[in-house]
């Protein structure tokens, strides 16, 4: 006897005829275009990076931490050029949160690209982080090598000068032109080294050698100041700058033969001071800090000129 097929409502027919949600999910997992675990992992990584960027920014605002960081937006989210692994390693030193109170002596710790120093705030010792990890993936090899050569732990003022120089070279798009700073009156040690960058230099190991080199740096620095800047002939020092003018041609030199040479002299000068005893260094380093301040002020003015 012929049996009539069972009657199903239209909605139930559609459910029975279409694959189940579980089957759809399995099919999607088997598809080459879909990989759920990887997608979840990528999303989690993006959120983690964003969280760390926000955390670093909070530290910058709250503790005036100096951070050099370049970020760029891609289809997958934020790619941060800063070495966060180094940050995490540094955080593990002492196993404390950045904003917590810490007991720390006056020595500095270096982890990856981060220099850590203690700082006192109302009697509470806090860690201060200076992140000097080289962050510019777009820079050419010459700049990376120059950064590695100049990047030394000589204090906050020197680190700030390095940052200004990095900004200046970035504005010039990392070019390495043939034009250079004035050769006239350049320190002899710099002349010898610039001919062959890999050549060793004599150590500035005595008070007399450090003093002589410092004076030669001042003489050279004064020789190529802009025409609107005056200096004292008697003490061989530029006069303080109150107003910047518009002629910066003599100083507006990037690349290996530009500001890198000025910073090289500053670095050698400090290395000479470090080789002296504390008593010998105490008086001589005042002149080094004066030079650092003057050089930094002029570089700030030059950056302002190039960006306006």
From TrEMBL:
Residue segments, region Disordered: 1-37
Highest taxon in the source lineage: Eukaryota
Name under which the protein is recorded: Uncharacterized protein
Organism: Lentinula lateritia
Organism placement in taxonomy: Eukaryota, Fungi, Dikarya, Basidiomycota, Agaricomycotina
């Amino acid at each position: 006897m012929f049996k009539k097929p069972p009657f199903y409502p239209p909605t139930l027919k559609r459910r029975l005829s279409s694959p189940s949600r579980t089957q759809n999910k399995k099919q999607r997992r088997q598809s080459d275009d879909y990989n759920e675990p990887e997608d979840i992992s990528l999303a989690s990584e993006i959120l983690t990076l964003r969280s760390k960027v926000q955390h670093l920014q909070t530290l910058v605002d709250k503790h005036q931490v100096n951070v050099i960081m370049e970020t760029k937006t891609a289809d997958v989210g934020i790619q941060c050029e800063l070495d966060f692994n180094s940050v995490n390693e540094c955080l593990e030193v002492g196993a404390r949160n950045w904003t917590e109170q810490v007991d720390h002596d006056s020595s500095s710790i270096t982890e990856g690209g981060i220099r850590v120093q203690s700082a006192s705030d109302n009697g509470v010792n806090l860690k201060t982080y200076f992140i000097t990890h080289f962050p510019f993936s777009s820079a050419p090899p010459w700049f990376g090598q120059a950064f590695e050569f100049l990047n030394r732990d000589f204090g906050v003022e020197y680190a700030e000068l390095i940052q200004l120089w990095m900004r200046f070279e970035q504005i010039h798009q990392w070019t390495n032109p043939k034009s250079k700073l004035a050769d006239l009156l350049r320190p002899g040690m710099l002349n010898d080294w610039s001919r062959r960058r890999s050549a060793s230099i004599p150590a500035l190991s005595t008070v007399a050698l450090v003093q002589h080199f410092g004076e030669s740096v001042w003489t050279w620095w004064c020789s190529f100041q802009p025409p609107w800047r005056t200096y004292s002939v008697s003490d061989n020092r530029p006069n303080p700058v109150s107003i910047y003018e518009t002629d910066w041609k003599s100083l507006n030199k990037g690349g290996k033969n530009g500001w890198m040479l000025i910073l090289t002299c500053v670095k050698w000068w400090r290395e000479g001071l470090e080789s002296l005893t504390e008593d010998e260094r105490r008086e001589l380093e005042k002149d080094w800090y004066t030079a650092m301040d003057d050089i930094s002020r002029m570089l700030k003015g030059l950056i302002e000129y190039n960006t306006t």
